[in-house]
Specification:
Elements: E1 7-10, H1 17-30, E2 34-37, H2 44-54, E3 61-69, H3 76-79, H4 87-102, E4 110-117, E5 123-132, E6 136-143, E7 152-156, E8 159-163, E9 172-175, E10 178-181, H5 199-211, H6 222-239
Length: 249
Amino acid sequence: MKAKKNVLIEKPLAMNLREVQELISAAQDNSVFLMEAVWTRFFPVSLEVKRLLGQGEVGDVQMVRVDLGAPLTHIPRLAEKELGGGALLDLGIYCLQFVLMVFNGERPESIQATGHCIDTGVDGTAVVVLKFSGNRLAVCTCSITMMLTCDAVITGTKGTIKLPNHMWCPTTLEVNGKEMRFPLPEAAMPLNFTNSTGLRYEAEEVRQCLLKGLKESPGMPWAHSSLIANVIDEARRQLGVTYDQDNIQ
């Protein structure tokens, strides 16, 4: 950014809130574009969820539940503390970004976390309960030690919205029991990861922001990245997970 380059940074944006704030300050000081690469935000399913919530399809949201987990401790970057491993930083961010999308970036009134660590000292499984104003709740479960349902459910006063699977790269939506499908473009070459053709939506978002001269994305603003880091920092504190980057003043 000091070289005046626009930057799209793979999630998590940084190891903690302090580093996130440093990156945002660097983007501001150098007048360049910066976005955390949370590709989920730009899938057609995510855009439809926002539209449905905006028009009150399920009434007032009361509860959000998100689960994401798989046995991944054999992958060094997910298990090793020196590589920034842990369930919260790799998978929990998907859960938290979804919650903040639903609640329009509102700061929770309270954060309660529990879970367990693996022998490398990073969190293997974490459950984070967020309480928002008006007694609205969100429960996020993430794990690198076990397979979870990998779904998301929004419960409102008039019904439910569900992402039944692959909530981090969704192509199916259930609204009050009615299924809606949003198929991805066909892949021209073999994919390394599930639904990877969906990365084009994130790329197009960045392109449109640059064409408009924007320095941050309305779909994944800096305030959301900061709040996600803030919540993860607090959850890690409660779980007793620290990294070397936390000790830098």
